[in-house]
Amino acid sequence: MGEDQELMELLKAGDPRALEQLIERWRERAESYAVGILHDRQAAEDAVMEAFARIYASRSRYEPKCAFGTWFLTVVRRICIDEIRKATHQPVPVPEIPETGTESAETEALHRMEREDRIRILAGFDETERRILLGFSLEGKTTGQLAKELSMTDGQVRVRLHRIRKKLRKGADDANES
Question: Whole-structure pTM over 0.70, yes or no?
Answer without folding.
Answer: no
